[in-house]
Amino acid sequence: MVMAVTGIIMIGFVVGHVLGNLLVFRGPEKLNSYAAFLRGTGGALWLARLVLLASVIMHVVAAVQLTRLQRKARPIGYDRQEPQVSTLAARTIRWGGLLIFFFVILHILHFTTGTLHPTFNHTDVYANMISAFRVPWIAALYVVAMAALGLHLYHGMWSSVRTLGMNRASRDPLKRRAAALLAAVVWLGFTIIPVAILAGFPS
């Protein structure tokens, strides 16, 4: 239940985050105004950050606890290794989660505090994004991380609604269209930004 609830909280944040980031395609005024609006909320922004931080911590702790319980219940794996109804997202959920965890730390140091951004400007989010993603290895890092995020969202969204009893059991577990659509939209929204900037946007 903790995994499911905290996962849904983080999914809500990710959806809002990608919608805000996509304002980069509407120009510096729109994106910087949005960023200024968020900073102007003051206490509300910090409350949201605290809720998100608590969700991340509880999500990670729950993941570790569930992994230990699983290994304790079956210390020796199944003889049959070929995946049946399991998906790639399900089989990589732990490694993907670990990658996302370290990426989030890097992302905060890069775009929130500016510690790792050589030309960081607290009031010009647009310029920060353009200058960062003009560097090929940084753009590539974000693209890889967003692929991991997309897979994690796909499995996580499906698992969360099942855990909370919001979805009946399906005769075909691979038909997870809503989760797949959400994951694809978020992945595409985040990925298109570094790709477009590296390709020369704005021209």
Summed up:
The chain is mainly α and 203 residues long.
Report on this model:
The chain is mostly helical. It has a single domain, classed as 3 helical TM bundles of succinate and fumarate reductases. Helix content is 72%, strand content 0%. The chain is built from 8 helices and no strands. The protein has helices at 2-21, 28-40, 43-73, 88-91, 93-112, 125-133, 136-163, 177-198. α1 crosses α3 (43-73), α1 (2-21) packs across α7 (136-163) and α1 runs parallel beside α8. The radius of gyration is 19 Å and the shape is globular.
Which descriptors apply to this entry?
8 helices, 203 residues, mainly alpha, single chain, 3 helical TM bundles of succinate and fumarate reductases
Share of residues in strands: under 5%
Number of helices: 8
Percent of residues in helices comes to over 70%
CATH architecture: Up-down Bundle
Tell me about the largest β-sheet: none
**Could you name the CATH topology?**
3 helical TM bundles of succinate and fumarate reductases
3D shape? globular
The termini sit apart by 47 Å
Please report the first level of CATH classification, the CATH class: Mainly Alpha
Low-confidence stretches: none
Assembly state: single chain
Average pLDDT confidence is: 89
By secondary-structure content and strand pairing, the structural class works out as mainly alpha
- The rounded Rg comes to 19 Å
CATH fourth-tier homologous superfamily: Fumarate reductase/succinate dehydrogenase, transmembrane subunit
Question: Element order, helices and strands?
Answer: HHHHHHHH
Number of domains: 1
Count all strands and give the number: 0
